[in-house]
Write a structure and sequence with these properties.
The chain is an alpha/beta fold. The chain is 39% helix and 17% strand. It is globular, with a radius of gyration of 24 Å.
Length: 402
């Protein structure tokens, strides 16, 4: 049984400050009464917390309600607003072939971004860390932000990550992401770095800004090149004992699936196989050597028989995948995410129609609107959650001179 942490005054102050900042992140200038209603704090506590956050630079006090054009009688209500540029957070998507870094203000608005291709297996950890750091600095330059303004970093990796933020490198491929990124960037930049599985971050991002907003039981499947999933149950992210909850290696044993290749990979592979044959198809008119999933789906919509066959095979396969997830976990919603999501809407109808063949508890299926930014959106959310939880322990950089 987990040891209970005593509710000390210091802990209560941190929790209260975090609750106020979380509310202000999604709100405009608000009154003390608004904050009380949203957080459940007493008036005295709310005022004390807001004044403390103002002193620390997290919150700005705006003109009172009377000056703003509100109440005309009695004591004017004080109004507070998040200082959204008090600092920034970084959300990283560290893939095998590309690194993307997003800079966000404290409301979660993207203010800078950089993305560069990279082959993880070509160099060692030191070179990869230097490359990641270079992408981060490019993103900060695009945001006109300095390294000392970074309050937290969250990096998503394509490997299991346990509850402590350690990569579980029980397979060679996963070992490519066991870089020692946290101590390296702490030493080089002074940054606090959180590491999380990319599919888990996709689930956080989807619940925040995607198709799963407000849904407490959801599975998000990253489905482009390889299949992996993040699980939210009862509103909480599920890690498992060693960070492997959501890993889909069991699909090797599922009839009609047999591996974890994703939609984009299979559409490209099956199109290449079809083009090697003699069947007539409009796909032959495309650039030879590489036909992408969106081109297959477009050809299918135009009536191309070869493309329609590929779409049908993909729908059957994904219905089996979603069916096993629905049977094991019984989520309300399964979201198909990743870069392929931009063109995968065409699969929703065929997948849904087949689901009852593979599970007695079919879930609703949706496609993520976040595209290939789904991991960085979740990474930003994870970093913001850290900042709000530890706001009283963090020091803000002095504002830059105009």
């Amino acid at each position: 049984m987990a040891e209970l942490v005593p509710a000390t005054p210091q802990l209560l102050r941190r929790v209260s400050a975090g609750a106020v900042l979380e509310y202000l992140r999604a709100a405009a200038a608000v009154t003390v009464t608004d904050v009380m209603a949203a957080t459940g704090l007493t008036r005295a506590t709310t005022i004390a917390v807001c004044e403390d956050l103002v002193r620390r630079g997290w919150v700005l006090e705006r003109e009172n309600q009377r000056e703003f054009g509100g109440y005309q009688k009695g004591r004017p209500a004080r109004r507070f607003e998040l200082n959204e540029r008090a600092g920034v957070v970084l959300g990283m998507d560290i893939g095998y072939a590309k690194v993307t870094v997003v800079v966000s203000d404290l409301r979660g608005k993207t203010v800078g971004r950089a993305s560069r291709p990279f082959q993880a297996g070509d160099v060692g950890s030191r070179e990869r860390i230097a490359f990641i750091d270079g992408v981060a600095m490019a993103a900060l330059r695009s945001a006109v932000a300095a390294p000392d303004q970074v309050l937290a970093v969250c990096a998503g990796v394509a490997a299991p990550v346990d509850r402590h933020g350690d990569v579980v490198a029980t397979q060679k491929f996963w070992g490519l992401f066991d870089l020692g990124l946290r101590p390296a960037l702490k030493e080089a930049r002074g940054w606090t770095v959180l590491v999380e599985n990319d599919a888990n971050l996709a689930a956080l991002g989807e619940r925040w800004q995607g198709a799963a907003a407000g849904i407490d039981d959801v599975v998000v499947i990253l489905a482009s090149e390889r299949l992996g999933s993040g699980i939210v149950e009862g509103g909480r992210l599920v890690h498992g004992t060693r960070g492997s909850a959501g890993e889909l290696a069991y699909l090797d044993l599922v009839d009609g699936v047999g591996d974890t290749y994703g939609i984009a990979h299979l559409a490209r592979t099956w199109a290449a196989e079809a083009l090697a044959g003699s069947a007539p198809t409009t796909l032959r008119a495309l650039k030879p050597g590489r036909v992408e999933a969106e081109q297959v789906f477009a050809a299918a919509a135009d009536g191309d028989a070869v493309a329609q066959d590929i779409l049908d095979r993909l729908a059957d396969r994904m219905a089996r995948v979603v069916g096993t997830v629905a049977t094991f976990l019984n989520p309300e919603l399964v979201v198909i995410g990743g870069g392929v999501a931009n063109s995968a809407h065409v699969l929703l109808g065929p997948i849904t129609a087949r689901l009852c063949n593979f599970t007695a508890t079919p879930a609703r299926v949706a496609v993520s609107p976040l595209g290939d930014s789904i991991v960085t959106v979740g990474a930003v959310r994870c970093a913001l959650d850290y900042v709000e939880k530890h706001s009283l322990d963090l020091e803000l950089a002095p504002p830059a001179e105009a």
